[in-house]
Amino acid sequence: MRRAGEHPRRDPKRRIVLDGPRLIQEALDAGIVVEAALIAGDEPDRAGSSLGARLLAAGARVCQATPRVVQAASRVVTSQGVVALARRPSMPDATILASPGLLLLVADGIQDPGNLGTMVRTAAAAGASAVAVTEGTADPFQPKVIRATMGAAFRIPVLGLDGPALRAALIAHGVRVIVADARGDQDYASAPVDPPLAIVVGNESAGPDPAWFHLGTRVRIPLLGPVESLNAAVAAGVLLYEVIRRRGAAPADP
Predict the structure, then answer these.
(1) What is the C-alpha separation between 200 and 210, in angstroms, rounded?
(2) How many other CB atoms sit within 10 Å of the CB of residue 7?
(3) Which pTM does this prediction carry?
(4) Most-buried pick from 137, 238, 245, 249 (CB within 10 A)?
(5) CA separation (Å) from 234 to 47, 112, 179, 206?
(6) How many domains would you assign to the chain?
């Protein structure tokens, strides 16, 4: 279990590791197949009898283990007493990009797992339709990213497409694109945000792929203090909630 999910290409079952009862509950709520779980205690369902019973009812193999064994299987410094092995969610069909009310967050080359996880969580909180991750972006289902999403990775579609394919699909579906860029020509508060819309936030240091600049409006978020740029996840949050503010509170179409 400790090695599962570290190299998804080497794992034909493409499994993921879930640490703690909250993530496991979120996965079960979303219909994710949990194959096995280690629970510290005297009985398999000792650490949260309801969770243990639910795992068993879902067909998972639940094993009793000492706290030391559970900690060894965990990816966190201090285990919460339960670790599970689940099947990696399948990528959703790209037809979601054809939704007329689309609000898509594009994580373009985001490498930091914490940033990506926060972006996924923020997109889910803002009612976005989906998140797309391009090549060079961290694996959205690696343990650090999943933990940073606080389970939101199971509540919003996450698409994996290379940049050219994603751009071609957005053009084909007539999707408006705004690109976060500190050197952008337009203030983010005045950029058009009519649906369908994609918001592109690029790599933490290099920014977005320049290929995006020819597709959409480059928008800047004003920096009033002595800093060069905003954190990628913060920029994504600012732009998503600006869209929500100007459209009203209704969530985007799925």
Answers:
(1) 11
(2) 10
(3) 0.87
(4) 137
(5) 36, 13, 14, 16
(6) 2
Question: Each residue of 195-251: pLDDT tens digit?
Answer: 999 999 999 888 899 999 999 899 999 888 887 778 999 999 999 999 999 887 666
Is the domain of 38 the same as that of 146? no
Domain of 20, in residue numbers: 8-87
Structure tokens at 197: 């819309």
Give the model confidence (pLDDT) of 57-92 as tens digits.
999 999 988 889 999 998 888 888 899 999 998 878
How far is CA 179 from each of CA 77, 134, 218, 233, rounded to the nearest angstrom?
Answer: 37, 14, 5, 14
Q: What CA–CA distances, in Å, run from 153 to 61, 149, 208, 238?
A: 23, 6, 22, 20
Other beta carbons within 10 angstroms of residue 219's beta carbon come to 23
Give me 65's structure tokens.
């283990």
The pair of structure tokens assigned to 58 is 């879902």
The strand pair at 176-180 and 217-220 is best described as parallel
Q: Is 249 exposed, middle or buried (0-12, 13-18, 19+ CB in 10 A)?
A: exposed
CA separation, residue 227 to residues 165, 187, 193, 223 (Å): 34, 17, 27, 7
